[in-house]
Amino acid sequence: MELKLYDTLTKEKRVFTPLDPARVRMYVCGPTVYDFAHIGNARPVIVFDVLYRLLRHLYGEAHVKYVRNITDVDDKINARAAERGVPIRELTEETYKNFKEDVAALGCLPPDVEPRATEHIEEMKILIEKLVASKHAYVAEEHVLFNVPSMKDYGQLSRRPLDEMIAGARVEVAPYKRDPMDFVLWKPSKDGEPGWPSPSGIKSAGRPGWHIECSAMSWKHLGETFDIHGGGVDLVFPHHENEIAQSRCAFHTPVMANYWMHNGFLQVEGEKMSKSLGNFFTIRDLLADWPGEVLRFNMLRSHYRQPIDWTIKGLEESFSTLRSLTDLPEFETGAERIFAPVVLEALGDDLNTPKAIAELHVLYNKGEYAALGSSLRALGFNKRPESKRSVDSKKVESLIATRLDARKAKNWAESDRIREELAAMGVVLKDSKDGTTWEIAR
Ligand code: AMP
Ligand code: ZN
User: Fold this and answer.
1) Segment 281-303, tens digit of pLDDT
2) Which of 12, 249, 337, 419 could join 377 in a cystine, given CB atoms 3.0 to 4.6 angstroms apart?
3) Which domain, by its residues, includes 108?
4) Ligand 1 pocket test, candidate residues 43, 47, 268, most atoms within 8 A of CB
5) pLDDT per position as a tens digit, 133-183
6) Are 105 and 200 contained in the same domain?
7) Ligand 1, atom 1: closest residue by C-alpha
8) Is residue 281 part of a domain?
9) Residues 91 and 44 in one domain
10) Is the CB of residue 32 less than 8 Å from the CB of residue 74?
11) Which residues are CB-neighbours of 410 under 8 A, at least 6 positions away?
């Protein structure tokens, strides 16, 4: 079977050829650990878990190395730890533990290595010193900056015009920068901020910039050049562009990774997820109402490069579809995890999970239950979702319909009574000119 992957760098779908089939290497940017991960963060975790499973199937479990880092040094972490009055290490450890539990509930395998940034400061300093020695970076006012004009083909991944890049990078235009695009590799730490002995030429303690972390950790665990680098589409610029600049200039290599893969963004009920809009969901929030398998299935119904609109209606559909697909003795009792050839073919086409799910339906309709059960398990579905939800959606829908009738009859007392009955069940109604929608209050 042939695997084709879309590469953001060359903007084409290409046959995947690993540098070394005995050692297929993938790096995915992981979480910054200061708070519960939200459902948008779950998207790359689930998508690259499917790719990891596919690669393990194709090349053998012992021949795939998946690295997903943990960013445990960051200004947001410092701020949150100060706010909560806890030591930084306590905050990052607790958040990381929660993240691991959440993604395990989503059926994701742990990567082979989960390196922490704070345990790779030495590697970062080595890279920074190499970049300074080769004049791709310079020291200025206790900072080390990467000099963007020193790299002739900077910007190949995002291919944006220079003025857009300057605006998009939102980098501080500090007086000590030689060029407005130059970005921080190392910066000084004030008292009370985490700090390490700085690279040569700087006396005071400092800490790394974000981009250098991934160049250092991927180098340490996967080498100077590796096969696949993944993350959300928001990371293309500046994060991945800058990772490429650092790694290629440090090692004098033509590429950092051979395939750059980016998942599209997740919205909630048609809007950008944000705390102020009240549509912000952590994985933990959703796991209180939905089995993890349903969240996974809902994510995989969209192709990873497309945007995804996360809705209660979609979750309801995913729940009932997955319930019927797994309503088989072959799923409950089987243990094999093998992709059926039709499923494999769909996944081989740039991880076409909606097509793979359509093929699961075909297997179901043909009565090929053993192949169906085995494929579901290979895709990371380990058990039949139970209705753990505190809310019975059928009952909610029927109460909404009764309330609508009451409103049509101008029976406002009855309409309010039903709204209250639903509120007592934890359901919030939203009336609009297009009808009534509901959600579970948190
Ligand atoms: P962060 O912790 O913000 O650095 O994000 C961790 C990962 O989640 C990155 O790969 C992001 O691209 C990805 N991500 C963040 N928000 C979303 C979203 N709304 N939809 C899809 N992916 C996201
Ligand atoms: Zn990264």
Assistant:
1) 999 999 988 999 999 999 999 99
2) 337
3) 4-266
4) 43
5) 999 999 999 999 999 999 999 999 999 877 777 766 666 678 899 999 999
6) yes
7) 31
8) no
9) yes
10) yes
11) none
Cβ(219)–Cβ(229) below 8 Å: no
Is the four-CA dihedral 395, 397, 403, 408 of positive or negative sign? negative
Confidence at residue 192, expressed as pLDDT on a 0 to 100 scale = 87
Asked if pLDDT for residue 442 goes beyond 50, the answer is: no
- Report which of 279, 270, 222 is spatially closest to residue 66, judged by C-alpha positions: 222
Q: How confident is the model at residue 424 (pLDDT cuts 50, 70, 90)?
A: confident
- Do 366 and 430 lie in a common domain? no
Q: What pLDDT, in 10s, does the model give residues 245-276?
A: 999 999 999 999 999 999 999 999 999 998 88
- Ligand 1 atom closest to Cα of 272? 19
Is 277 within a domain? no
Q: Which ligand is nearest to the CA of 243?
A: 2
164: in domain: yes
Which residue owns the Cα nearest ligand 1 atom 16? 40
Atom of ligand 1 nearest to the CA of 233: 12
> What's the CATH code of the domain at 216?
3.40.50.620
- Taking only the tens place, the pLDDT of each residue in 64-74 is 999 999 999 99
For residues 85 and 205, membership in a common domain is answered with: yes
Is 411 among the domain residues?
yes
Quick: pLDDT tens for 85-129: 999 999 999 999 999 999 999 999 999 999 999 999 999 999 999
Q: Which residues surround ligand 2, an ion (CB under 5 A)?
A: 29, 214
Q: How large is the average pLDDT for residues 423-429? A: 79
Closest ligand to 242 CA?
2
Q: How far is 424 from 142, CA to CA, in rounded Å? A: 58
> Is cis: bond before 354, omega within 30 of 0?
no
- Ligand 1 site residues (CB inside 6 A) read 29, 31-32, 40-41, 43-44, 231-232, 234-235, 263, 265-266, 273
Kindly compute the dihedral angle of the four CA atoms of residues 118, 121, 122, 127, in this order, to the nearest 10 degrees: 140
